[in-house]
């Protein structure tokens, strides 16, 4: 065995982090298999690989017995004591049986084992790197597309962006640079498999953490996210610092921060509302930009009845019910929206002996673009399941 092998193993230990002892054990096991296969030997043998000396030897191992039944695996006590008088019954006698031309086979086998172990080690390191980045955002380059999936290069690995995780309003071309959210990393026989998303609410959360220093530093907290990817999203924010405006921090000067995030998501509109542990206040905020006159809460059914001015009904509902639907997802409450006229006819507004306590004015944020529904009927929105933000 050449000393070049020792030099190669030392280099691999430094560059790839693969222990020399691990490689040595793997090579010895492979040499043992190669010996039995190439020399049609079935006896019990041991391979001794000495990298420091650059030597490799094969030893047969035979049990010392009184009566030999298989001379490939056993040796009589008499013959064993001819080799060494100290041998006794049940001892193991080792005898070198290294074939003359075994060096060539050994070198080839060692090369194969080292190559395989290096490949496995690289896959393992890539897996460990990306499994720690689950629920994180990464930059990638679109490499190729097929009928269902998009494949995004992340540097050391190619990630899969399934069709269900793609924004329907986006078109992708090879070499496009995109930000994706790592949802899952799996270890497979072909190496680590990374799955990414452009629709996951976590992508929106990470983008805000990158764009808004107050969120990254923990001064402002994103409480909940409701997203219809590519179209519209709502996020609720909260802070314990009375000197910080959580909504203003996220919007930025002249809407610069939220506009940057919207541009990254292909123009997706983003409503930012203030979170509250009081469902009356939170539901009223979540229906922004509409004005809310009253919110009545049923704790048992986890539902709310919201009264809005007649002229604000379509705004509260939103186009195709989107505003109300996102508000229900954001708050986790069922929302039943009624116009002021209908609520008065039903006798539920104003509540007897109570005052209207929720008044949410139309947003003055220049970023907001009003979208209303053509349906002016009362609407009830149930919270439906979605990925947790």
Write the layout of secondary structure elements.
Elements: H1 3-15, H2 20-38, E1 45-50, E2 55-65, E3 74-76, H3 77-83, E4 92-96, H4 102-131, E5 137-145, E6 150-153, E7 158-161, E8 177-188, E9 191-197, H5 201-211, H6 213-216, E10 220-228, E11 232-239, H7 246-251, H8 256-264, E12 269-274, H9 279-286, E13 294-298, E14 303-308, H10 313-317, H11 322-331, E15 334-339, H12 340-346, E16 379-381
Parallel strand pairs: 2-3, 7-9, 11-12, 14-15
Antiparallel strand pairs: 1-2, 2-4, 5-6, 5-8, 6-7, 8-9, 10-11, 13-14, 15-16
What would you say this structure looks like, in words?
The protein is of the alpha+beta class and 389 residues long. It has three domains: 3-130, N Utilization Substance Protein A, Chain:P, domain 4 (2-Layer Sandwich), CATH 3.30.1480; 133-197, OB fold (Dihydrolipoamide Acetyltransferase, E2P), CATH 2.40.50; 201-381, GMP Synthetase, Chain A, domain 3. Helices cover 33% and strands 27% of the residues. The chain has helices spanning 3-15, 20-38, 77-83, 102-131, 201-211, 213-216, 246-251, 256-264, 279-286, 313-317, 322-331, 340-346; strands spanning 45-50, 55-65, 74-76, 92-96, 137-145, 150-153, 158-161, 177-188, 191-197, 220-228, 232-239, 269-274, 294-298, 303-308, 334-339, 379-381. A five-stranded mixed β-barrel has the order 5-6-7-9-8. Strands 1, 2, 3 and 4 form a four-stranded mixed beta sheet that branches. Strands 13-14-15-16 form a four-stranded mixed beta sheet. Mean pLDDT is 84; it is low at 357-370 and 383-389.
């Amino acid at each position: 065995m050449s000393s070049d092998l020792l030099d190669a193993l030392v280099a691999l230990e430094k560059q790839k982090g693969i222990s020399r002892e691990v490689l040595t054990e793997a090579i010895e096991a492979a040499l043992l298999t190669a010996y039995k296969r190439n020399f049609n030997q079935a006896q019990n043998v041991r391979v001794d690989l000495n990298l420091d000396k650059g030597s490799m030897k094969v030893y047969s191992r035979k049990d010392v017995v009184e009566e030999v039944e298989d001379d490939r695996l056993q040796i009589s006590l008499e013959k064993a004591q001819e080799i060494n008088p100290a041998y006794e019954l049940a001892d193991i006698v080792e005898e070198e049986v290294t074939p003359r031309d075994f060096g060539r086979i050994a070198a080839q086998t060692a090369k194969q084992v080292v190559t395989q172990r290096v490949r496995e080690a690289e896959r393992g390191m890539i897996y460990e790197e990306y499994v720690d980045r689950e629920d994180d955002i990464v930059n990638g380059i679109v490499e190729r597309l097929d009928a269902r999936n998009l494949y995004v290069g992340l540097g050391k690995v190619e990630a899969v962006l399934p069709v269900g995780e793609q924004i329907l309003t986006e078109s992708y071309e090879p070499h496009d640079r995109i930000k994706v959210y790592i949802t899952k990393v799996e270890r497979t026989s072909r190496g680590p498999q990374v799955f990414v998303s452009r629709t996951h609410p976590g992508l929106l959360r990470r983008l805000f953490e990158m764009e808004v220093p107050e969120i990254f530093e923990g001064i402002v907290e994103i409480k909940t996210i409701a997203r219809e990817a590519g179209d519209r999203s709502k996020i609720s924010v909260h802070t314990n610092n009375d000197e910080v405006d959580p909504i203003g921090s996220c919007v930025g000067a002249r809407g610069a921060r939220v506009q940057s995030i919207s541009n990254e998501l292909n123009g997706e509109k983003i409503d930012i509302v203030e979170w509250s542990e009081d469902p009356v206040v939170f539901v009223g905020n979540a229906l922004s930009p509409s004005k809310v006159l009253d919110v009545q809460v049923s704790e048992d059914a986890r539902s709310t009845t919201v009264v809005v001015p007649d002229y604000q009904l379509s705004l509260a509902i939103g186009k195709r019910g989107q505003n109300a639907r996102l508000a229900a997802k954001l708050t986790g409450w069922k929302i039943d929206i009624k116009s002021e006229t209908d609520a008065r006819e039903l006798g539920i507004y104003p509540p007897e002996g109570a005052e209207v306590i929720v008044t949410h004015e139309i947003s003055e944020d220049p970023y907001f673009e009003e979208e209303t529904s053509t349906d002016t009927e009362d609407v009830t929105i149930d919270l439906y399941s979605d990925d947790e933000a």
